[in-house]
Each structure stands twice: as C-alpha cells, then as structure tokens.
Amino acid sequence: MSTLILITSAPTSIHAWHALGLAQALHDKQEPFRVFFYQDGVSVANTLQWVADDQRHLTHAWQALNIRLPVCVSAALARGITDQENAQRHNIQQHNLAEKFELVGLGELADAVQSAQRLIQF
C-alpha cells in the first residue's frame, strides 16, 4: 500500500515530528511512500533555521532519510525560502533551500495524491 505523507505543520510542531517518525517507520519496513512539504511545512527546508545543540534538528533528520524531499515552490517563496534558480528569476539576493530538498509545483502533489492509496496529513 503506497502512502503519501503531506506535511503542512511548521517544524516547531510536534505533528511535524510525527510525520518524520512515520516516514522513518515506512522507510525501515521498505514500504512505498512519498512525502510532500506544503503550507507551513515548507519551513523545514530553510537552511537558515537555527536549532540549539541539545535539540534534534528536523531538517537534518529528513536529509538523513535519503529520500526525495519535494517542497511546494509557491509556499516556499511566500515564506522566504528559495533555491538558486528561483532566486535569480525573482531577483532575490541569495538562496536558502536546504540540501536534498527540491522546489516543485503543485502538479507534483496532484500526481502523488492520484497515485497514493492513502494520504496522511500532519
């Protein structure tokens, strides 16, 4: 059964951590799943987030999974997150998209919803 994990909660939310836990469990069981970061969930892809040394870093945890990490480009840009290509296109001085995350359009979410057998939103 394929699962789509839709992350809309900010990285400071416990729900964002639950999404990671589910992804790790599915990954460990080698069950098919995809993730999509949308709304406030895109903030996990901001490389400029500061996290205290004694706390877990959600961005690093997602990167460690070594899976595809698609992020809604419109939601990201609206929250000040951009990759190098969009920074140039929109005359933004620098980019701050974390490594292994990629900006994509909502068509990718539509495709993921269409092909998933279940969708779980956090």
Structural overview:
One of its GO terms (biological process) is tRNA wobble position uridine thiolation. InterPro entries: DsrEFH-like, Sulphur_relay_DsrE/F-like, Sulphur_relay_TusD/DsrE. One of its GO terms (molecular function) is sulfur carrier activity. Belongs to the DsrE/TusD family. There is one protein chain. With 122 residues, this protein is α/β, with parallel strands linked by helices. It has a single domain (3-121), classed as 3-Layer(aba) Sandwich (Hypothetical Protein Ychn, Chain: A). 36% of the residues lie in helices and 18% in strands. It has five helices and five strands. The strands form two sheets. A three-stranded parallel β-sheet has the order 2-1-5, sandwiched between helices. It starts with a strand and ends with a strand.
Any idea of the CATH class? Alpha Beta
CA-CA gap between termini:
19 Å
The value of Rg in angstroms is: 14 Å
**Helix-strand pattern, N to C?**
EHEHEHHEHE
Beta-strand share of residues: 15-25%
**Strand numbers in spatial order across the main sheet:** 2-1-5
Main sheet attributes: strand count, strand direction, barrel closure: 3 strands, parallel
Low-confidence stretches: none
Per DSSP, the total helix count is 5
Structural class: alpha/beta
CATH superfamily: DsrEFH-like
Percentage of residues assigned to helices: 25-40%
Mean pLDDT, rounded to whole units? Answer: 96
Subcellular location: Cytoplasm
GO cellular component, one term: sulfurtransferase complex
Keywords: Cytoplasm, Transferase
Organism: Acinetobacter wanghuae
